[in-house]
Design goal:
The chain has helices spanning 8-15, 24-28, 46-61, 65-76, 82-91, 94-101, 107-115, 149-155, 192-199; strands at 119-121, 124-125, 138-141, 166-169, 174-177. The protein is an alpha+beta fold and 201 residues long. The protein is globular.
Length: 201
């Protein structure tokens, strides 16, 4: 599957947020990269602001343009508020839920666990990161992968009550996707209405 493999710190500095996970450089250089990154900020157009928000959402969830567009079109056909439904669809991706479960420290790490066939959904191996998890389904670690150091290291010390739509079971290293999260519960700093306005042009 195609995915962004470029310099992540540079992108994080562009948005001024650790969108790929904890970033030591960002904590020291919280301004855009480049020769004039720490200088006077130039005014951004309305279109530029909207485009920036879309890019932030794409990088945050690790989704490329075509997938993102398809998700937006699916959200726009739904009965709910388009922007909120878009974020809910992104949250329901298997790689994102694996990340929320604490099985990986980053979404990229979670995507790798899925791609390498370490994750099961309702007992069956699913190796498609974009797989849309439905409420009631149980996501877990494949039996022979439960001793993987990368998983055990990531899970230790995680607050598993952080996300009310996920019910964690420590002994089995699994979680039940209880329900689609409300927008107020999704912690990402994304102004989804700007994305809707961009695609509505």
């Amino acid at each position: 599957m195609a995915r962004y493999t470029g310099p992540k710190t540079k992108i994080a500095r562009k948005f001024g947020e650790p969108i790929f996970g904890p970033d030591k450089v960002l904590s020291k250089k919280n301004y855009p990269p480049g020769q004039h990154g720490n200088g006077r900020k130039k005014k951004t157009s309305e279109y530029g602001i909207q485009l920036r928000e879309k890019q932030k959402a794409k990088y945050t969830y690790g989704v490329l343009e075509k997938q993102f567009r398809n998700l937006f079109e699916k959200a726009s056909r739904s009965k709910g508020i388009t922007g909120e439904v878009l974020l809910q669809l992104l949250e329901s991706r298997l790689d994102n839920i694996v990340y929320r479960m604490g099985l990986a420290k980053t979404r990229a790490g979670a995507r790798q666990l899925v791609s390498h066939r370490h994750i099961v959904v309702d007992g069956k191996v699913v190796n498609i990161p974009s797989y849309s998890v439905k409420p009631g389904q149980v996501i877990g670690v494949r039996e022979k992968a439960k001793s993987l150091e990368v998983i055990l290291d990531s899970v230790s010390g995680v607050n598993h009550s952080k996300y009310p739509w996920i019910e964690w079971d420590q002994p089995s290293l699994s979680a039940k996707y209880l329900h689609i999260p409300d927008r107020t519960d999704i912690p990402e700093n994304i102004k989804e209405q700007l994305i809707v306005e961009l695609y509505s042009k």
